[in-house]
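REVIEWER CHECKLIST
Item 1: Sequence provided? yes
Item 2: Single chain? yes
Item 3: Sequence as submitted:
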Amino acid sequence: MIDAPDKELFERALKDHDARLAAADLQIWVGCEPTFTDRLSTDPEWLVAALGGDKQDRAERMLASLYRPGALVMRSVGRQYPDEPRPRWSIGLYEGRDDPWLWDGPIDPLVVAAGVKSSDAAELARALAADLRSIGWFAQAVLVPAALPWRVMASPKTPVPAADDPRYARRSVHDSKLPADGLGDELAEAGFYLFAIGTADKDLCLRVDMPKFDDVSVFRAVLQVLAGASRRLELTNLIVSGYPPPVDKTVAWTTLTPDPAVVEVNLAPSPDALAFFQRLDSVYCAAQSASLHPFRLQFNGEVSDSGGGGQITLGGPTALDSPFFRQPLLLPRLVRYFNRHPSLSYWFAPAAVGSYSQAPRPDERVRESFDELHLALALLERQEQPAPEIIWGSLAPFLTDPSGNTHRCEINIEKLWNPYLADRGRLGLVEFRAFRMARSATAMTALVTLLRSIAAMLSQRDVNEDRLVDWGRELHDRFSLPSALRADLDEVLEDLRAAGFGLDPLLESPLRNAEHRILGRDELDGVSVQVCRALEFWPLAGDTASQEGGSSRLMDASTQRLELSLRVPLGQEKELDRWRLVVEGRFVPLAKLADRDGPIRAIGLRYRGFVPLRGLHPSLGARGSVDMLLYRPDDGVAYSVAAHEWRPGGGAYPGLPVDMDDSVERRAERMVITPATAEEGEAPPDHALSPYCFDLRWL
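Item 4: Structure as written out by the authors:
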């Protein structure tokens, strides 16, 4: 949601990006999973729980806002975890891409509510059966003693079973436990389609449970029959529910589902960045209309994402037209490129990163696995045209978390060409999971253009033809610092420019922005001093194996990391060398870094921010602040810099921050700089100091 003139310029930049990819004869479709929360609520469904409260009502309000005439509102089923009695709800919009007028039947009461008479269920069942017979199908309506009691069995080729067949009375998919091997429909597999019709108690209108269809053209034809029968009966509302609809490149299927603390939107893929932005912008507007937010503001001004992440998916118009199959070496090159550029793993990530996060890197697994990945990539690249099953089979064992979970990894290929994931495994899709939820549609779209441009560049040639980089300890040391990550991102952007896929400044700007990390900054005698939130790599608390079966895991998030950085304009690097840093009485050397804006001196400062109920190091206390001394030995100029976890002096905040400006003020309040007296520090403990970090927990 941006101002009209800015939006016009932004869309112009997207058109230019799309034109570059089209000129290179590349089709890279993109989808995403934005998540939204009520940042002001303390109710469980907006903090930890997937279901409950008004979450479904909010999602329905979002859907009503997204609805456009001609779309079908469909209520299907979402995911189900072992401790849940039935599948979670899922509501969606099914739309035609070329012909937006896909459905001309009664509207779901989520959009416009009106009542119907109770006798309509029998009439609709008989009318649907008759109309299916009129187009050459076999069909009959049967009354059974079950919920949604009127059943219509139909088949385009085969006479349907007799009315006393017990399969007519099967339970609704909404009330059945999802099988471990995926959602199947035995009747549909045998060529029979069972519709269940009744009155929905809550909405007081008719509901039709749809069977499973695999073919979009058949499904659309059946929808036309259902719409015609409903109109003839003058129904004003109709709920269409049941199995999820089939999808191909002619239709768009967007769903809203519950997840812990958020409403998750599974946005239908778009063929280009402009279409993606326009669709995504409407989703952000719909969330705002339901008083939902893509971020959270903490009491002390810290900014976090919604809590559900913001994954992005790349693919093609069809599975076999996926860019990862049309250019079979693209995926191996992406794996290598992400390995060489940790900014793609960490710069856009949520707070939890590292081996036990939801999206670890392949080199954050065990050592032996990393060595084998070298070989897997080499063997793939020896083949001129590896088949989809070879690409997936070669890389799937390595794109997992340390426990082997194929869903938890930064580059997720579960839906690339996976024969073990029923219905959804062979879609030609690659999901990028190491992304926090973006605060705006422009920010997420900018990230999409970055990924599409990297894929386009690597489709043309391999930028780095040598082996994977073995970062070792440097990965979690140097690249914990925002300054190092931004410098690495600048290298990526330069690679894109050199390859002819450079991004417009309007797209680069939100990519390089990290204002949410900054506690405060100030100008001190010719240098710019900044303290910001750095990355920390949290471990699991407790037994790892015992936590793998659940939907969440307990992490020790008590360790925090700050970055202190000093900057000067280009050409004045010698000024940086005059400054020294003392932290808690210990001399700490500053690391040399640089990005496109100039030279930097920086260091990470690691400490325990709170004592968890369950975590590592039970005897280790927490720090309320990190106290630093910056000084120049040559002239005695010195400043005390204190970074507080909470407001200086303590005391409660009046409430959560009202807006982003309020959160900026609260963070700035926590950084206190005052003139001081220069003093040399003692040498730090050996184990406390690394090239890019000083660990205060050793003091």
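Item 5: Key structural point noted by reviewer: The CA atoms of residues 356 and 539 lie 6 Å apart.
Item 6: Recommendation: ____
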